[in-house]
Specification:
By secondary structure, the chain is an alpha/beta fold. The protein is built from 7 helices and 7 strands. Strands 2-1-3-7-6 form a 5-stranded mixed beta sheet. A two-stranded antiparallel sheet has the order 4-5. The C terminus is likely disordered.
Length: 220
């Protein structure tokens, strides 16, 4: 015998079965979010540049700088952005590890301990192999010996990061920190040419004492 549909039976149904509707709504939301994430248009790696800063800082300042570079010197790049990773002890290291291991970002600004740890794993570009980078610092009288680390897999020493405390612009993007920051380029970033170009521009703008001839060890 069929149960009649009336106010009483509907009230009883929702009283005992409300959780099924709630669960259905939650599942629909997550399925929609997953579909959007998978199907949303994404800028290819070779058309974008991402700078990650493991620090507290003023996001507008660095993004304004990147927008200026984008407009005047790198307009062929579709997207240039900076993102801060908050260095709180509970989640900061995990977020940083996730970003690096997932292959996100092109350039990183890291405190010494994290720079040394990831550099020893060979996760950054060997900057000593890029023409003219060391000469820029030598011409400005800046010691970058602290940026050399040994790759624990190959036992080779390379310049994996550039100490930024003696530069003019880059330190202003972060609030004061007890650890010196190092500018690095992530290995296998999918955009080597543009990442190197941005690195050279950032260094050039931070070392005004360097002559134009010394700045351009490679094309900028």
């Amino acid at each position: 015998m069929k149960t009649p549909i009336n106010k009483k039976t509907l009230t009883q149904h929702f009283q005992y079965s409300w959780w099924m509707y709630l669960l259905s709504a939650v599942l629909c939301f997550f399925l929609w979010d997953l579909m959007y994430t998978v199907t949303a248009p994404r800028t290819p790696d070779n058309e974008k540049l991402e700078l990650y800063l493991y620090a507290y800082g003023e996001e507008n300042a660095v993004n304004d700088y990147l927008e200026k570079v984008h407009t005047t010197e790198m307009s062929d790049v579709t997207e240039m952005t900076a993102q801060y990773i908050m260095p709180d002890e509970s989640s900061g290291p995990m977020v940083l590890a996730t970003r690096i291991m997932a292959g996100e970002g092109d350039l990183y600004l890291l405190p010494r301990d994290f720079f040394q740890s990831y550099a020893s794993q060979g996760l950054f570009v060997a900057l000593d192999e890029l023409e003219g980078i060391q000469e820029m610092f030598e011409a400005a009288g800046i010691n970058i010996e602290r940026g050399w680390r040994k790759n624990q897999d190959t036992n080779e020493r390379h310049l994996y990061g550039l100490p930024t405390s003696s530069l003019n612009i880059i330190p202003t993007w972060t609030y004061s920190t007890s650890s010196e920051m190092y500018l690095t380029v992530r290995l296998y970033n999918g955009n080597d040419e543009n990442a190197e170009k941005l690195l050279r521009i950032m260094l050039r703008d931070s070392m005004p004492a360097v002559s134009q001839e010394t700045q351009t060890g490679g094309s900028v």
